[in-house]
Design goal:
By secondary structure, the chain is α+β, with helices and mostly antiparallel strands. Helices cover 33% and strands 23% of the residues. It has a 6-stranded antiparallel β-sheet, with helices on both faces. The chain is globular and about 40 Å long.
Length: 128
């Protein structure tokens, strides 16, 4: 499985979340945890969420996903069973661009992020 460049992922998530006013934490394989109610330590909070909701367990809600194609054409968002855990898959990554193949790729990246738990970027929401 190809690993996406961290700077590419950061740039994509910044564009996706511009104007949301939310803090977020990006993990190594493209999974982002958006923090609706941020705590003092954003990375620690996101790791806790991803530890619980990142690993895939097939035939349970943890294996569920939905694929959303971005209007910008830069790729897809693959959702999970937690509303604030989403994985970005860039347009050039999957060999097969079908929603099923993209969803399985995104889900497998979420699983890796949920077991490896390596946060690569923390973005705090601007203060009002």
């Amino acid at each position: 499985m190809t690993t996406v460049d961290t700077e590419t992922l950061i740039d994509a998530w910044r564009r996706l979340l511009t104007g949301s006013g939310k803090s977020w934490v990006l993990f190594e394989h493209g999974t982002c945890v958006v923090l609706e109610q941020p705590a003092a330590d954003l990375a620690e909070q996101a790791v806790g969420i991803l530890r619980e909701f990142g690993p895939v367990h097939v035939a349970t809600s943890a294996g569920d996903f939905r694929v959303l194609e971005l209007n910008t054409g830069e790729g897809w968002l693959v959702t999970s069973h937690h509303p604030d855990v989403v994985t970005f898959v860039p347009r050039d990554d999957p060999e097969d661009p079908s929603h099923l193949a993209v969803g399985i790729l995104g889900r497998s990246r979420r699983d890796r992020d949920g077991t490896e738990l390596r946060a690569v970027h923390v973005e705090a929401a601007p203060l009002p």
